[in-house]
Prior knowledge:
Blueprint: H1 4-17, H2 30-37, H3 41-53, E1 57-60, E2 64-67, E3 74-77, H4 80-87, H5 92-95, H6 100-105, E4 112-122, H7 125-131, E5 138-148, E6 157-163, H8 164-167, H9 184-190, E7 196-206, H10 210-216, E8 224-233, E9 238-247, E10 251-254
Parallel strand pairs: 3-10
Antiparallel strand pairs: 1-2, 4-5, 5-6, 6-9, 7-8, 8-9
Amino acid sequence: MAVAYERIADELREAIRAGELRPGDKLPAESKLAERFRRSVPTIREALRSLRDEGLIEKHHGRGNFVRRQRTSTLRTNLRHQWEKGRARQPLAERAQTGATEHETGLEVDDLVFRVSYRETTADQGLAEAFGLPEGTTLLERSYRTRYAAESAPFSLVTSYLVHDLIATNPDLLDTAKEPWPGGSQSQLYTVGIELDRVEERVTARPPTPEEAEELELPPGTSVLVLRKTSIDINDRVVDVSHVILPGDRTEMLFTTPLERW
Length: 262
């Protein structure tokens, strides 16, 4: 038998799902809800905590509880890499019309806010092993954040590593002012004569760090997907290692595997 706070949560949940309470609407104050349901304020708080844990409402400190606006979802498939490779050599005007984020969210270029930062770093043991290079090799670390202009949280947290000496022949690849680069990383690598042969992706799940939960605006209890992407060129050389943190509440990953016919 449901306890009091569960019955209250059920009624509020139904009001949200029925559209009686719409995204962005402010819920009545805890004291008003206590009067309405004839229960104590601690019981009301327990019901609201349950709804926050489900991601249905969010608390703005000093302002109250609001129905949470659903974030734009992303459908990421393994076919994206061939799609990107097919665009790498297209004319600039064609590459500039759309990118991977638009492809995965259904948004338009003008809908997006893009932020990037670069810095030189050196390969630690893990990155050195991934690239097959000595520890201390100079790398270019690139950090990407892309979000829908109507939202405040990015779609993912991306950190990409390139071998500095492989790309330094094109100074544009070291310049953040050239971002966002139409056609993405494969188009960038193409400018220095690099063609990808394959992309390996390993996906795991874990609880977010406090910093990740805050930046991605995750509801309590939501996991993140951790994607490690390794890009290998036609000479069997690792040319890009990327770490991608994806919010588990709005990311779908679809893998399509063609099978040979008998």
